[in-house]
Specification:
Layout (H helix, E strand, L loop, with lengths): L6 H18 L2 H8 L8 H9 L18 H13 L5 H16 L2 H12 L4 E4 L15 E5 L2 E8 L10 E7 L10 E7 L5 E5 L9 E11 L3 E2 L5 H6 L2 H29 L1 E2 L2 E2 L4 H30 L6 H26 L1 H4 L5 H9 L8 H11 L3
Parallel strand pairs: 1-4
Antiparallel strand pairs: 2-3, 3-7, 4-5, 5-8, 6-7, 9-10
Helix pairs in contact: 1-4, 4-8, 5-6, 5-8, 8-9, 8-10, 9-10, 10-12, 10-13
Length: 380
């Protein structure tokens, strides 16, 4: 498809790029905002962006948003990633907003969706120590109690929970033969008694966490959707989740590529720029082509979702997530190789792109899981 932007979308892109250049345009600025790359989310900058109204791009006007669509969301996410704007809490909030919008009570929508628009972070907790790709096997249990439920169990790899105000927890409420039945979503404030958030050190810095629940009481009115219907609710949001991850990966790939391209044009060896050598020239051509493919695929699927938000696109959404994250990783790794020792040095951003893009092929469903889904839709 040929992406034709509205005047409003063009203005948004220009504004996001201007902010990125102004706030995050130098390495010194980015280091100050992220404590030298340790944190992916800067609360002060996040609030500034909330005040501009950008955090509510895809949230209904009823809750303070601008009521945009999937294309608007992807444009913002791509430019945010390209501009290296450290507001990692927005990515997970955008994913988490979907279940609240579709299934939350009016009170929860007013609390959480309006909160996201105004600069609060909403996280989601699915994975457990023994339930990663096989989310349906989760064991965290919510037992009925007077006026609500009592949560016990552990969640792991929970993105940005340490900066969140609420966590959307998927827990088991009924045990049965079908592992996909008997799951329920709960909106749990991080201040809840019996809930503990602990950081998991990673090569990407402070991003993910363990969450422990020990007799954590959740009132009945904080159930999101229907009790025991959590799996179907989760599946209904996969289009947007995979588009969100894909659009961010596209922005990462573009920025990593542009950094490498600038380097190989300037770095000279044997009397000429290294980008003039065929070995690198052809690599650059291949990467540029791959990025173009990702852009076309991402916005084609985004347009389909925008035209019919309720349509399930398991094959197409998985293709976006698979292709975008694998290409971002490929660009970062090949870029490091082309930059040689400088690509490995922390003086440049390239080593950071390697750290940040590697995890993209794991979060939100690994590349292997995406291939399984695509193959299944093809009758295999």
């Amino acid at each position: 498809m040929s992406l034709i932007l509205t005047d409003e979308q063009k203005a948004l892109r220009e504004a996001v790029r201007d902010l990125a250049a102004r706030e995050c345009g130098t390495r010194e600025q980015r280091d100050a905002l992220t404590d030298h790359g340790e944190h992916a989310h800067n609360a002060a900058l996040y609030q500034k962006i909330a005040d501009l109204g950008w955090l509510g791009l895809a949230i209904s006007e009823e809750y303070g948003g601008s009521g945009g669509n999937a294309v608007d969301m992807c444009l913002f996410l791509e430019d945010m990633a390209y501009g290296m704007i450290p507001i990692g809490g927005f990515v997970i909030s955008a994913i988490t907003a979907g279940p609240y919008d579709k299934f939350g009570s009016e009170a929860l929508k007013q609390e959480v969706l309006t909160g996201i628009v105004n600069g609060k972070v909403a996280a989601i907790a699915m994975s457990e120590p023994e339930s990663g790709s096989d989310v349906g096997s989760l064991k965290t249990f919510a037992a009925r109690a007077d006026g609500g439920f009592v949560l016990n169990g552990q969640k792991t790899w929970i993105s940005e929970a340490h900066v969140a105000d609420t966590v959307l927890v998927v827990a088991r409420t009924t045990r049965g033969e079908n592992k996909h039945e008997g799951l329920t979503m709960f909106s749990v404030p991080v201040t809840s008694e019996g809930m503990e958030i602990r950081p998991i050190p990673t090569m990407g810095g402070r991003i993910v966490n363990d969450i422990f629940f020990s007799d954590c009481f959740v009132p009945e009115d904080r159930v999101v959707g229907q009790v025991d219907n959590g799996w179907i609710q989760l599946m209904s949001g996969l289009n947007i989740e995979r588009l969100i991850i894909g659009a961010g990966a596209l922005g990462q790939a573009r920025r990593s590529f542009d950094d490498v391209l600038a380097y190989v044009k300037e770095r000279k060896q044997f009397g000429k720029a290294i980008g003039r050598f065929q070995a690198l020239k052809h690599r650059i051509a291949d990467l540029a082509t791959e990025i173009e493919v990702v852009e076309l695929l991402t916005y084609d699927v985004a347009q389909k979702v925008a035209e019919n938000p309720g349509m399930m696109l398991p094959k197409e959404a998985s293709m976006v997530k698979l292709k975008a994250t694998e290409v971002a990783k490929q660009v970062a790794l090949e870029g490091m190789q082309m930059m040689g020792g400088y690509g490995y040095a922390s003086e440049y951003d390239q080593e950071g792109w390697v750290r940040r893009t590697l995890v993209g092929t794991i979060v939100g469903g690994t590349s292997e899981i995406q291939r399984e889904i695509i193959a299944t839709t093809l009758g295999l």
